[in-house]
Specification:
Elements: E1 10-14, H1 18-30, E2 34-38, H2 41-50, E3 55-59, H3 67-75, E4 85-89, H4 94-102, E5 107-110, H5 115-126, E6 140-145, E7 148-153, H6 156-218, H7 223-262, H8 264-284, H9 288-299, H10 310-313, H11 321-327, H12 330-338, H13 347-353, H14 374-389, H15 400-409, H16 417-428
Parallel strand pairs: 1-2, 1-3, 3-4, 4-5
Antiparallel strand pairs: 6-7
Length: 437
């Protein structure tokens, strides 16, 4: 076929991970394909036999019937062997590639995949018909790899196509790896400069202390002057430490600004939530360390929404269950972005927990009670109050009174009682209001 009629093209997904399956369904449905989904190879094979698709995308590691076994079953079925099969997997060992060739797969794409690359492979195989062969007439290739004998049955065209897709996938991953290494190198250089500045500050402090000890012995008369000089220098060192702290805060602000550029609506929500969360923390008299962590986490608590399509985030109408399931992944995505950064506060844990609920009904882990950090409990209340009292693309603002009614009604079950009491106090008695949007 020279032109693909996507509206009439059926693609079957065989994937046991609900998150990966949903992600792939959204990618394909945005391109107007018809999508069928199965959670294992056995279910997928039954669906193929009942209603043959135009193309199959299958994971390899699945229960009941693996992707290799599913692919072999399709290619050995005279009614199905013409259907292109794309093997989608996180496996990268050469032995896995050999198994993919033996299963007569037509393409091999590794996770995490590039959406554009996968789409191009789908279109290529839809426009390239597969000439079927009698399974008994397919030639065998016998060879030895790492001391083990292998016998592979695959048509020359399938073998060439599969190996070519592996090569293209490797080239793409090498490019992405190079880009990542360059970004990491830039971050490393910045961190080295910060560490060097701190080491220099410590060196200056040590040299000054050594000098003071010597001068106490040698020049008692000049002691007062030297003490004053020591205080002045210590002040400079404290200033340097403040600059280092400011640099760290700048890093967090830069992350928030990245989201601001992509989605100003979410960024403004984060800023307003921080204002209320800090006011609640002050009312509860939490420690300075927890307050600093709360403030920093609040600035970027929705950073994970950078992975959610803007069409879903800013959708004016009611979102579907599928779209909401995808939105709920943002706390885990935020945790993955932040977990390897060495902050002096548990920023990543606060971010992943800010949608957990006291009774265990939250997400993503269903934590409850003391399993949830206090900072995350505060953000949860501030987040709900801001969201309900502010305008949203899918509804007008419900108002502050409605928001307070919500947290008071669910106090002790969904929300922490002490946090709710502090929130009501800062709004009702102390006159807290959100900045203008």
């Amino acid at each position: 076929m020279s032109v693909i009629n996507k509206a009439e093209t059926k693609i079957l997904i065989a994937e046991d991970s609900p998150t990966q399956s949903l992600k792939l369904q959204i990618l394909l449905e945005e391109q107007k394909y018809q999508v069928m989904a199965a959670s294992n190879g056995k279910e997928a094979l039954e669906m193929c036999q009942a209603d043959p698709p135009n193309l199959i995308i299958t994971d390899i590691e699945m229960p009941e019937m693996s992707g290799y076994e599913f692919c072999e079953a399709v290619k050995n079925d005279p009614e199905l062997m013409h259907i292109p099969v794309i093997l989608l997997t996180s496996l990268s060992d050469p032995v896995d590639v050999i198994r993919g060739v033996s299963a007569r797969g037509d393409c091999y794409v590794t996770k995490p995949y590039n959406g554009y690359f996968l789409s191009s492979k789908i279109e290529h195989h839809l426009m390239t018909p597969i000439v079927g062969l009698d399974p008994d007439a397919i030639p065998s290739l016998d060879f030895t790899f790492k001391g083990k004998e292998y016998s592979v049955k695959s048509t020359p065209g399938q073998m060439l196509g599969l190996l070519l897709s592996i090569y293209e996938d490797s080239v793409l991953r090498n490019y992405e790896l190079t880009q990542t290494e360059e970004a990491l190198e830039e971050i490393t250089q910045k961190l080295e400069k910060k560490v060097s500045a701190q080491e220099e500050a410590e060196k200056q402090l040590k040299e000054l202390n050594d000098s003071l000890e010597a001068k106490v012995v040698e020049r008692t008369v000049a002691l007062e002057m030297e003490i004053l000089e020591h205080k002045a220098t210590t002040g400079k060192l404290r200033s340097n430490l403040k600059m280092l702290r400011k640099a760290m805060e700048g890093t967090i602000t830069a992350m928030a600004n990245t989201l601001d550029i992509r989605d100003p609506y979410t960024a403004d929500h984060q800023r307003r939530v921080v204002k209320l969360a800090v006011a609640i923390g002050e009312e509860m008299d939490i420690s300075k360390g927890k307050m600093d962590g709360l403030r920093m986490a609040g600035v970027i608590h929705d950073i994970g929404k950078i992975a959610i399509p803007l069409a879903i985030l800013n959708k004016p109408g009611k979102i579907t269950d599928t779209e909401f399931t995808l939105i709920k992944t943002h706390s885990e995505v935020g945790y993955d972005i932040l977990k390897k950064v060495e902050f002096p506060w548990p920023i990543a844990d606060i971010v992943i927990q800010h949608h957990e609920r006291l009774d265990g009904s939250g997400y993503p882990k269903g934590l409850s009670g003391d399993e949830i950090l206090l900072e995350a409990k505060i953000l949860a209340v501030a987040d709900v109050v801001e969201a309900m009292s502010s305008h949203r693309p899918y509804r007008p603002a419900l108002g502050m009174d409605k928001a307070l009614e919500e947290i008071i009604t669910k106090k002790g079950t969904i929300f922490d009682p002490a946090v709710v009491d502090a929130c009501v106090k800062v709004i009702k008695r102390k006159g807290f209001t959100f900045p203008e949007q």
